[in-house]
Amino acid sequence: MNTKTLKALTVAVTLAAGMTTSPAFATVPKFDNLGVPAVMQCTTALKGRILHSDKIIFKILPGVLVAVTPADQGALNQLPRGYEMDIKVSDDPRTIAGLRGKVLSFMGAALTDQNARLITIVDVEYATAVCI
How many domains does the chain fold into? Predict the structure, then answer.
């Protein structure tokens, strides 16, 4: 991720932090701790390829995230700490998603244990699967 993208993400998060939200009410779903792969087939696509994406909601805890590229360090330092932010990432539905790693790589932060400890995953709001 380049500096321009990080600055745009910072502006979007700052604007979103100023908005007020109303509480949502829903029925608590039944607990299910079995991890079963979502098997999908693309009968309408010629090659049968599936594009899958997730919306990951996260917070950056206080501390210094180390950028992969030194030129991006300043922009990475400008991202707000303690605010809920989100990204949309594509992944392979047949694998286990490393959410902290996906967040770090999206922001251009190094994939280190130190950086991973500064990321808290709040939720994964939705997942989409599209045949292409």
Answer: 1
Q: Supply 20's token pair.
A: 């007020």
Position 25 in a domain: no
- Cβ 92 vs Cβ 54: under 8 Å: no
pLDDT in tens, 48-90: 667 778 899 999 999 999 999 999 999 999 999 999 999 988 8
Query: Residues 83-130: pLDDT tens digits?
Result: 999 998 887 777 788 899 999 999 999 999 999 999 999 999 877 777
Q: Which residue shows structure tokens 């990432």?
A: 89
* 42 C-beta neighbours (distance < 10 Å), count: 15
Give all strands (DSSP E) within the chain, no chain letters. 50-60, 85-91, 119-131
Instruction: Give the separation between CA 112 and CA 15, rounded to whole angstroms.
Output: 29
Tokens 């919306």 locate to 55
